[in-house]
Amino acid sequence: MVTRCTQFLLTLCLLISASACARGLPEVTELIEQNSPAVVKINTMDRRQASRGGVPPQYRQEIPDIFRHLLEPRRREQRPVTSMGSGFIVSGDGYVVTNNHVVDGADEVTVTLTDRREFKAKVIGSDSSSDLALLKIDAEGLPSLKWGDSDDLKVGEWVVAIGSPFGLDYSASAGIVSAMGRSIPNESRENYVPFIQTDVAINPGNSGGPLFNLDGEVVGINSQIFTRSGGSIGLSFAVPASLARDVVAQLKEKGQVDRGWLGVGIQDVDLNLARAMGLGKPHGALVAQVEAGAPAAEAGILAGDIITRFDGHKILEQGDLPHMVGRTRPGSTVTVDLMRKGERKKVQVTVGTLPGGDEDQQVASDNGPSTDDVGGRLGLVVGEIPDGLRQRWGVDTGVLVKQVVPGKPGAQAGLRSGDIIAQLGFDEVENMKDYDRVVDELPGGELLPIRFFRAGQPTFRTIQIDE
């Protein structure tokens, strides 16, 4: 009798354990089967050529003729540079979402569906700050995915990714949400994305692919990984759907993204500063600098203030503030809670437009047909730098890129709207008059240096006019 009871209890425990395991490890086969057809593979091609050698023209006359040919630029043909990524269809008429870095600088973008159909894609708009891009393919009746609410995600919740890691088409992987709201500044030191951190196996080629919740809704766009090996080590980051949905809507509507702007420089609050300011514990964003004439200055925010809430949302650390401000529509009036000299205050701020947005630039897009006369020899529409942008980036001379014509030399050089050109060839560009003169004199068929500023950071690349 004792033996039978023991066996019964043992069997019951095993059944309970099995049931618990079943609840802990979700079944995702149906999710993958239903949603894979709307996930796409993206291949890009960059046909730019490289050269080596060369010497500035102003020094060529100093070189004896017998040696000059050794220092002349020697062009070498290169195979087109190709890369790959993932994406997903968001509407049946052919709109596709992916990462900006997947298509940035590409001459040709090809979208491949699970049924092996291939389409040439047009870049409707891209946004480097959120690392998102919107493509369009000429097709109808396509399967599409549904956006979910990433704000409802919890740490420990199961999520699934589908993409093409290392070119292995339509691979699925699963894991859990490891953290929410991760602040990871991009190469331009911008920090507008509160990333979702997961331990899902994400590898090169997964970029731009969807991250699903267990309801089959897109809650994130896989964007980057942290790795020392080149492959997944369990630290992957996705752009949250709550942000991506608004960015995609703006790209579809006008080809660019307008972001909110306060005009403050901020830093973290340490324990000693928190105590001195009467906070009790470290939180908030310390205002280190206020730009003259910026929305924060107009609202009366001062250097030394600690912003603790923005539009009702807590600011736990400095990275939270740009996330919230960037998502706020320009022109909105919000309440900002702050601590000033130990006293709590509330101010009303009318959020401005981040310089480099609609008022200062246009994002490159293929919304309309380009013609040979748009943008001149370089395919760039440029203008003088607005005063607000000069102050923001600390750039006194140059010309502002307002539009980049796809397929032209400027686009092939990787220029974007919002860049500030300071040098073409070996000539400085201080204003529009300099720019027009230098462009007219640029030789065709040679790789030439171009220096420009992106978000205040100087960058050198090469540009070539194929004439």
From TrEMBL:
User: Residues annotated as region Disordered?
Assistant: 354-373
Q: Where is the signal peptide?
A: 1-22
What's its EC?
3.4.21.107
The GO molecular function terms of this record are: hydrolase activity
Q: Which family does the record claim for this protein?
A: Belongs to the peptidase S1C family.
PANTHER family assigned to the protein according to its UniProt record, in alphabetical order: PERIPLASMIC SERINE ENDOPROTEASE DEGP-LIKE-RELATED, SERINE PROTEASE FAMILY S1C HTRA-RELATED
Q: What does it do? A: Might be efficient in the degradation of transiently denatured and unfolded proteins which accumulate in the periplasm following stress conditions.
Indicate what this protein is called per its UniProt record.
Probable periplasmic serine endoprotease DegP-like
Which species is the source of this protein?
Microbulbifer halophilus
